[in-house]
Amino acid sequence: MANFPKLQVPELKGMARTIRTDVLKMVHAACSGHPGGSLSAADIVTALYFNILNVDPERPRWEDRDRFILSKGHCCPVLYACLARRGFFAVAELATLRKYGSKLQGHPDMNKCPGVDMSTGSLGNGIGCAVGMAIAGKVKQKDYKVFVMLGDGECQEGAVWEAAMCAAHHKLTNLVAIIDVNGLQIIDTTDKVMNIEPLADKWRSFGWKVLELDGHDMEQIVATLNYAKASEGPVVILAKTIKGKGVSYMEGVAKWHGAVPSDEELAQALSEIEGVAE
Amino acid sequence: MMEVATRFVFGKELLELAKTNGDFVVCNADTKACGIENFGVIFPDRSYSIGIAEQNLINVAAGLAASGFKVFACTFAVFVTLRCCEQVRNHVCYPKLNVTVVGTHTGLQVGEDGATHAAVEDVAIMRSLPNMTIIQPADAVAARAIAHAAVKFNGPLYVRLHRNPSPVIYDTSYRFELGKATTVRSYGDDVALISSGIMLQKALDAAVALKARGIKARVIDMSTLKPLDVDAVLEAAKATNAVVTIEDHSIIGGLGSAVAQVLGEKYPCMVKCIGIPDVFGESGPSEVLYARYHMDAASIAAAAEKLVRKKIFSC
Ligand SMILES: Cc1ncc(C[n+]2csc(CCOP(=O)(O)OP(=O)(O)O)c2C)c(N)n1
Ligand SMILES: [Mg+2]
Fold it and tell me: Do A233 and A31 touch, CB atoms closer than 8 A?
């Protein structure tokens, strides 16, 4: 981790607030995008980039780096904000999200955006790509770990379970999957659209070590991610989260999966997030 | 000019039709595609939520169809033609089951969502499957008529719908006839502009621009992409000897390829295919993207004019 001083819990909390405000400003400026799932993932993705992942913004394709795949690619605002704040590109570029010619495509493009390890956007596929990277790490005798984040709705895709089976079969000790269990997808709650429970039992029966945590408790997040990174995987972390976390009118409301806040709504959201700091 | 999205008109009409026609059911895959996600509110026994699982969406639809139901399986076009392509092939087309695959958010209209969501090859894929019929409305009026036709249709069908509001072109006199093209303007025989889907408005605008430059075009709406109205293509080609195809789709395998194949075999003449070149989509406003790929009205007119000049010099 090329001399990067890891942020500790109090700083991580502050950084997560910055990331949340970035996400909201980006989606507002783009006039489209997915705030809900970006906010539910914000604490975990912040912890990954500012404490857990061994990455180097100067060498985004450095062979020994830890990998992170955002399998739920529609939540890329949170990924872009973390990459920018971590130094992969200028923070000012966040304003170009989804604009013509931008490196910040509507769904992550690994050839356009430095720091993006896999192009995603079609759900259910990122975890299989993570399996491939984990196999490569073993074959090449590298120490890196592969992290992949999925949505809970995304777990309805059959390909997720093909990858889950494959990871256990190949004994991928270097793979950590994180499920953002926010209970919502596009249309409705996950249990109404297609029940995925009991999720922990499913992963366990597929041969994974299962950890559970509160996805908005930074102390737990850092401890659990560190534990997962050090343990022999494949490990899956089921993170209980709130979609739209941090913005009162977005929390737990399906509509904010892919809606854009108005000027007034943005102002309220930003003051709510900043208010937490005081 | 009034603008309405073809996907919503189609979905709304299906809901209306369901009140008097009890024969069909719908399957959804967690997308706000064309409004039939709300079908279950009125007809709880006729709407099945399959979740984010497109392959299962089509297999379940096939099973329902094999048990006597007419099924509409609906989600974004990029997923419903690609993620479950093999299910559509082997469980809908091969056994000739009565499933209408509804693909919304086609072409470059997904704009900001970018490459992973822009369905620019769906027609090419669906066209290559035996037993598949493909229709695409040019506007809201056609979308409504096509909803009626789809409910009556028996067999594998792909309906291609656009996301954004687009101009209403037709009036109440419009009749949709499966496999038949509609001649929408006939200024003359200098060039034939054959379009499909919402590109019709751009073709019409191009025809007006050409007229101002003394070039008389006819404009044809190819609402059925498969089976292609071969007679209409040949008639237009024989009259003009210059054919421009216009589609919100890759120039590989869609309308342009279908027309060029017919003309190559039966009546070789000047052809220009307008559409997305061999590239993935990218984020940006759809009109910016259309201009980028020379699919806007001005570019269509320019391409048509060039073709006409070439024709004059070559004879
Ligand atoms: C294969 C595929 N099918 C459908 C979609 C459309 N889609 C985008 S986001 C989404 C819901 C995702 O829900 P979830 O995985 O729970 O993500 P989150 O709640 O974190 O946003 C859907 C269906 C897609 N991107 N990919
Ligand atoms: Mg979710």
Answer: no
Q: Which of B3, B13, B16, B54 is catalytic?
A: B54
**Separation of alpha carbons A118 and A106, rounded Å:** 14
Which of A186, A226, A233, A236 is CA-nearest to residue A51? A226
Count of beta carbons in the 10 Å neighbourhood of residue B152: 11
Decide: pTM greater than 0.90. yes
β partners of residue B76: B104
Residue A189: strand pairing partners: A184
pLDDT at A141 over 70: yes
Domains (ranges, CATH) in chain B? 6-160 (3.40.50.970), 182-314 (3.40.50.920)
ipTM of the complex: 0.96
Distance CA A152, CA A198 (A): 12
Containing B220, the helix (H) or strand (E) segment is: strand B217-221
Residue B307, CA distances (Å) to A248, B234, B241 in order:
59, 17, 10
User: For A172-208, what is each residue's pLDDT tens digit?
Assistant: 999 999 999 999 999 999 999 999 999 999 999 999 9
A45, A78, A120, A123: residue to mutate for ligand 1 pocket, most atoms within 8 A of CB: A123
**Cβ < 6 Å from ligand 1: which residues?**
A 36-37, 40, 72, 74-75, 121-124, 151-154, 180, 182, 184-186, 243, 257; B 30-31, 52, 79, 83
pLDDT value at residue A3: 75
Three-state DSSP state, A242: coil
CA dist A126 and A116 (Å) reads 12
Residues 6+ positions from B227 with CB-CB distance below 8 Å: B133, B179
Superfamily holding A9-274: Thiamin diphosphate (ThDP)-binding fold, Pyr/PP domains (3.40.50.970)
Q: Tell me which residue of B134, B133, B128, B156 sits closest to B261, measured CA to CA.
A: B128
pLDDT at A1 over 70: no
